[in-house]
């Protein structure tokens, strides 16, 4: 069963929400049937694609017309929520950067079954390690670290590959009424908006998979046994 997640790497609640979903999946007895698909979303697509190296406090102060200390106070509770979810949100180190190219690489990663791994690596690089997630060498390094082929990564970054996919995700978000992220859609029937507690994800998982099972029942086979070999090498 598919869970589609619209999120932006620049969004701290998207990082927290990913953690909460994964906590719920660890408790869910049928986690093996879940396919998580990461959908692109940009909270601020107008952030320059060339680096200006502002941290989150500077960015918020300028965008919202507030003081630096006020921006720091505004994010204090978010950092605490991150700590409770097991992630470090270091807003003083976090470099505000355009996330478009990072989203393109997530699309590449999903073709190799590594979407969740790269998404986590990008979140950690941005919020914890203070890396520029629009820097070419940083993106190549993160992609290699999760198992993506370097040549394939470079090909994406040196082209417009997956740009249309990113744009399509953003249009689709608008079509289904996504006004903020993270936004989780379960089997196109139920949705969770925001970084809700793991229990909320678990309850929605249980309900949506139970309904999905009516159309996708487990195989129940009557087996006639004969000589065979098992994965442990034993044959009888």
Automatic annotation (TrEMBL):
Residues annotated as signal peptide: none
GO molecular function, one term: oxidoreductase activity
Annotated InterPro entries: DSBA-like_thioredoxin_dom, Thioredoxin-like_sf
Top-rank taxon, per record: Bacteria
Database matches in SUPFAM superfamilies: Thioredoxin-like
Domain DSBA-like thioredoxin: 3-205
Stated name of the protein: DSBA oxidoreductase
């Amino acid at each position: 069963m598919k869970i589609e997640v619209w999120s932006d790497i620049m969004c701290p609640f998207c990082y927290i929400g990913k953690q909460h979903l994964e906590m719920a999946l660890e408790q869910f007895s049928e986690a093996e049937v879940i396919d998580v698909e990461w959908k692109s979303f940009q909270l601020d697509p107008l952030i320059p694609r060339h680096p200006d190296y502002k941290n989150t406090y500077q960015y918020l102060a300028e965008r919202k017309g507030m003081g630096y200390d006020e921006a720091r106070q505004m994010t204090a509770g978010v950092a605490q929520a991150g700590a409770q979810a097991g992630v470090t949100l270091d807003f003083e180190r976090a470099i505000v950067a355009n996330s478009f190219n990072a989203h393109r690489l997530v699309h590449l990663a999903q073709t190799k079954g590594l979407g969740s791994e790269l998404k986590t690596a990008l979140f950690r690089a941005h919020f914890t390690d203070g890396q520029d997630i629009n820097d070419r060498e940083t993106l190549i390094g993160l992609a290699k670290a999760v198992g993506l082929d370097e040549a394939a990564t470079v090909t994406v970054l040196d082209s417009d590959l997956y740009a249309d996919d990113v744009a399509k995700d953003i249009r689709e978000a608008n079509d289904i009424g996504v006004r903020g992220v993270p936004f989780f859609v379960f089997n196109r029937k139920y949705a969770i908006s925001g970084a809700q507690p793991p229990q909320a994800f678990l309850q929605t998982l249980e309900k949506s998979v139970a309904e999905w099972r009516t159309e996708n029942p487990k195989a129940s086979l009557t087996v006639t046994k004969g000589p065979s070999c098992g994965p442990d090498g034993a044959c009888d």
